[in-house]
């Protein structure tokens, strides 16, 4: 009878071990009927719509756009008006007379930034009267046009155009910076999606091993009660169950933290990732070419180029500001005078005009010189930053390409090791069946297989993350 039971238990334990080992090759099924499967793109779209960092980046672009809008105010038409009243005592032929003047003027001024020209036009009216017997009031209406044309400083509107051109450059730079900053902010969530799948796969794997380990434990307990195995096998069987349970709970803690983080964006929705995205993205990551794209072809390099061009342009304007202010000025006025207001406005038959030059030049011009020196230093600084970023890019790109090649080799070795461990397991199982090996040795090999399979899942996720970093780093404008 004992011989018969011994044969039965020898069959049961290897069968249970085979169940444990086979469980690692499959994935335990979950009840996912009520869960909504969310694809990778939909996941990112949802994050991008809510991520506050991205909203902040968009605000920076809107601020730059608003600055551009406001920069054109230099060419706005300005309306001006003035009115005055005065009383003066004048002496005429030994007598004192009271002179009263009323004057008003209204006009429009427009600056043409493309040429550095300022044009004003308007109308004026003066009324003068003397308080004396028989005196009358005189009316002086007038129309005028005058201009101011810069010849040295601000020649052809180089200074007037600066505000608009600088704002345009800053707007273009900010739009590129938004893309780069958005990419950096969303990079974490791209990887988080595949970490989510990784945790799920590992939890399923551990759950299936726990099921198999419990079957081993029950089989060994029965055999122990019959006195067919010693306490060591019983402890080993119980220990492997606890080992997998601890590993499961530790990983489940990480999964709960991940779900809590995602809950910020998905508001307690019962969602799961599309597990098919993992092998598809992994295949893309493995088959893509990791080219050594030069830094000057990337969007970051384009940002540097635009920034440098902006600084060079600023330096040119600053140099122009060091020139003297030499302007060609002129005015043309039509006017008339009459004691009758109606007659004075009927025919503006008198003409005044002048043409001349205006010259001003600060002897030190400290502010403009300081601005020019500051801009030249900024150009030197941006050149240094470009070189630093170029070196950093080359370092990062080299590491990514190297990591990809290394990961391919390591993955091949790990998969080969799983094959060897499988063979080792079968050999040890045979020895155990022949009572030439203890249960713990077989269990240790099963644990090695488990760890190696988990390492393969993690390595594949690292390959995906490496590809995401490569795509972000080398993205062109």
Gyration radius from CA atoms, angstroms: 43 Å
What's the CATH class label of the largest domain? Mainly Alpha
CATH superfamily caption of the largest domain: Outer membrane efflux proteins (OEP)
Shape: elongated
Please estimate the helix content: 55-70%
Proportion of β residues?
15-25%
**SSE sequence, one letter per element:** HEHHEEEEHHEHHEHEHH
Number of helices: 10
Quick take:
This protein is of the alpha+beta class and 477 residues long. Helix content is 62%, strand content 19%.
Description:
- The chain has two domains: 2-67 and 164-309 and 378-473, Outer membrane efflux proteins (OEP); 80-112 and 117-153 and 328-360, no CATH class.
- A six-stranded antiparallel β-sheet has the order 2-3-4-5-7-8. Strands 1-6 form a two-stranded parallel sheet.
- It is an alpha+beta fold and 477 residues long.
- Helix 7 runs antiparallel to helix 9 (366-433).
- The chain is built from ten helices and eight strands.
Descriptive tags:
2 domains, 477 residues, Outer membrane efflux proteins (OEP), 6-stranded antiparallel sheet
Could you give the topology of this structure?
Layout: H1 2-23, E1 36-38, H2 40-50, H3 52-71, E2 78-92, E3 95-112, E4 117-130, E5 137-150, H4 162-225, H5 231-266, E6 271-273, H6 277-287, H7 299-320, E7 325-335, H8 341-346, E8 350-360, H9 366-433, H10 439-473
Parallel strand pairs: 1-6
Antiparallel strand pairs: 2-3, 3-4, 4-5, 5-7, 7-8
């Amino acid at each position: 009878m004992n011989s018969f039971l011994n044969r039965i238990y020898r069959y049961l334990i290897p069968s249970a071990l085979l169940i444990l080992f086979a469980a690692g090759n499959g994935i335990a099924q979950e009840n996912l009927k009520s869960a909504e499967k969310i694809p990778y793109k939909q996941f990112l779209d949802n994050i991008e719509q809510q991520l506050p960092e991205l909203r902040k980046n968009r605000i920076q672009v809107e601020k730059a756009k608003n600055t551009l809008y406001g920069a054109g105010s230099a060419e706005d038409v300005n309306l001006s008006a003035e009115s005055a009243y005065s009383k003066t005592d004048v002496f005429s032929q030994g007598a004192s007379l009271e002179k009263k003047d009323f004057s008003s003027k209204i006009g429009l001024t427009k600056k043409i930034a493309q040429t550095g020209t300022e044009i004003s036009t308007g109308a004026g009216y003066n009324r003068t009267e003397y308080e004396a017997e028989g005196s009358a009031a005189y009316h002086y209406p007038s129309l005028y046009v005058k201009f101011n044309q810069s010849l040295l400083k601000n020649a052809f509107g180089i200074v007037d155009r600066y505000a608009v051109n600088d704002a345009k450059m800053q707007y273009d730079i900010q739009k590129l910076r938004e893309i780069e900053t958005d990419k950096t902010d969303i990079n974490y969530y791209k990887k988080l999606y595949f970490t989510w799948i990784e945790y799920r796969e590992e939890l399923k794997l551990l759950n299936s091993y726990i099921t198999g380990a419990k079957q081993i434990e029950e089989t060994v307990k029965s055999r122990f009660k019959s006195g067919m195995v010693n306490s060591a096998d019983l402890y080993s069987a119980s220990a492997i169950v606890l080992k997998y349970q601890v590993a499961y709970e530790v990983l489940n803690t990480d999964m709960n933290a991940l779900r809590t983080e995602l809950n910020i964006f998905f508001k307690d929705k019962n969602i799961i990732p599309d597990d098919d995205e993992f092998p598809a993205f992994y295949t893309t990551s493995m088959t893509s070419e990791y080219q050594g794209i030069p830094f000057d072809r990337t969007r970051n390099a384009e940002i540097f180029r635009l920034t440098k061009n902006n600084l060079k342009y600023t330096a040119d304007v600053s140099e122009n500001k060091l020139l003297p202010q030499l302007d060609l000025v002129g005015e043309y006025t039509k006017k008339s005078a009459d004691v009758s207001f109606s007659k004075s406005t009927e025919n503006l038959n008198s003409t005044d005009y002048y043409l001349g030059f205006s010259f001003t030049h600060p002897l030190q011009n400290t502010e403009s010189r300081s601005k020019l020196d500051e801009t030249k230093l900024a150009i030197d600084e941006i050149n240094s930053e470009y070189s630093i970023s170029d070196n950093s890019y080359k370092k990062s790109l080299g590491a990514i390409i190297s990591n990809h090649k290394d990961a391919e080799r390591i993955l091949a070795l790990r998969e080969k090791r799983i094959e060897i461990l499988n063979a080792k397991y079968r050999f040890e199982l045979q020895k155990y069946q022949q009572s030439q090996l203890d249960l713990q040795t077989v269990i240790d090999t099963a644990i090695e297989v488990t760890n190696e399979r988990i390492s393969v899942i993690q390595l594949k996720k690292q390959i995906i993350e490496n590809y995401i970093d490569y795509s972000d780093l080398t993205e062109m404008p």
